[in-house]
Amino acid sequence: MKYKNLVGLILCSALFIVGFTINGNISLYFNLSGLLIVIGGSLSAALVSFRLEQLHIVTKVLSAAYRKPMMKETEIINILIDLSIRSRMEGILSLQNKENETTILFLRRALGCMIDGYKIDQIRDILNTEMYFFRLRREDSERVLRAIADYLPAFGIVGSVVGLITMIGGIGDTSVILQAIPLALTSTLYGLIFSNFLFLPFAANVKERTNQELLLQKIIMEGVISINSELNPVILKTKLESFLTPSDREIQLVSYAKIKERFNIEREQQNQARNEELDNTPLV
Questions:
Q1: Domain coordinates in residue numbering, the chain
Q2: 81: burial class by Cβ within 10 Å (0-12, 13-18, 19+)?
Q3: Tens digit of pLDDT for each residue in 63-84?
């Protein structure tokens, strides 16, 4: 997680906890029975709904999302431009060493297809298929997280119902009622907090990271195909910068002098003025 995000999370979580402590003792919000009902019930529902391997994949995706930093688009573009220059100077086969050095699996696969001599249409088809199933796998992980987020409030209500049943069964006994009231109220609280404070944000983070990685993969695919087509590195840089936001682009605007020189604007204006002058000259 980025440093700024972590600082913001700590500050906002502190405000969230302070809201619980202003009007009472924070120990009133802890209830072991309600916590066990909500967590145990939600995990049981998840195990019934999904394979254990799928849940393990979700934990790995979450761990990578918060622990492994992603490369920026500009870094990927610089790598591709470097590869383009290398391929023009030393040939396509010189990229084989670079293929083993890079840590981006998608880029390694793209370079491998290019080095093995695949045609452009074949490379595009293979990489598009790779991107499609990558998106499907990530959507499965997001679906699991959102399903667990839906289970949590439901089992919070289950805990509240258990507390109400205990209260009804203890009518006439004040001690039983006092013990059941925290269970009836805190279970719903736990379900809402775990759902909206943890699992829904987890799912949103996975979706956001997936979109970012798909953008990087699209840049890599277009870059590798352009390198295979022996596109000029300068043109390649201009093409790949189209994926960036205007603030991330390092573009020097062409001066008006160069535009006039390129399109002969001044010469055309002079010719037009000369023609108008001849047209207005009276005949003798």
A1: 31-248, 252-284
A2: middle
A3: 988 888 888 888 888 888 888 8
